[in-house]
Amino acid sequence: MSEPSTVTDPADPRLADYTGLTDVELRRRREPAEGLFIAEGEKVIRRALEAGYRMRSMLLTAKWLGVMADVIEAADAPVHLVEPALAEQVTGYHVHRGALASMERKPLPEAAEILAGARRVAVLEGLVDHTNLGAIFRSAAALGMDAVLLSPDCADPLYRRAVKTSMGAVFAVPYARLDPWPAALDAVRVAGFQLLALTPAEHAVDLAEAAPHRLERAALMLGAEGDGLTRHALAAADRAVRIPMVHGIDSLNVGAAAAVAFYAVTAG
């Protein structure tokens, strides 16, 4: 058990993992380099621990001591107790959930490793918005996708906002990077997957007509908000598919589109 220790100095080195959490560029560079990520809120912290991530430390305000008592009891890492104002000063924002944990990252698996046991995977290109990325992971977990593959320029699924939006689903769905891009898509095809590129283009086949749920192995490709998949990614796909639209709407938010497409790929 780790007995909580009160910290009153925002410059205390024990709080170093939590400094400047709103500085996206700083955290994007620092967290992978130092092998850490931040879990925010009771449910997310518990899900990270259940998924086998090791805790480096925890930062709490007093009102969360009771709620997190069992986690504190089991923790083999230091627990820092701070006032809400100090937590805000250190992190850069109002920590309304009152509980943060610094967790150790695990080594990322190779794409071939997670493809070997999968039948339904999502392939994401250029998704840099952490909220969209977290939403896609949440849908992938809820709708039964087996894995997520990311182009090298996709955002970090373990960045705090992505983890928070996914409600910890990033811990439940295996993921890997595909590099070099898009040449590494060949490895997905060699593994037996049909590459389906989601696009609003008129030449694309409606999802219902494509019947992706009947494929032995399907890899659904999605691009970033706005521009969608690049022409190189589209050229690498086996087939272009689309979600039919009505009432003059030409596309959906990528998170919403992913949820619809994941259902179409996994249903039946």
Keywords:
268 residues; alpha/beta; 60s Ribosomal Protein L30, Chain: A; Alpha/beta knot; 2 domains; seven-stranded parallel sheet; five-stranded mixed sheet; 19% strand
> Given the structure, what is the number of helices?
11
Overall CATH class of the largest domain:
Alpha Beta
SS-based class? alpha/beta
The domain tally reads 2
In CATH terms, what is the fold-level topology of the largest domain? Alpha/beta knot
Instruction: Report the principal-axis shape.
Output: elongated
CATH architecture of the largest domain: 3-Layer(aba) Sandwich
Major sheet summary line: 7 strands, parallel
Radius of gyration: 20 Å
Helix content: 25-40%
Task: Tell me the total number of β-strands.
Answer: 12
Poorly predicted runs of 5 or more residues: none
Please summarize what this structure is:
The mean pLDDT is 92. Helices cover 33% and strands 19% of the residues. Strands 8-7-6-11-9-12-10 form a 7-stranded parallel β-sheet. Strands 1-4-3-5-2 form a 5-stranded mixed β-sheet.
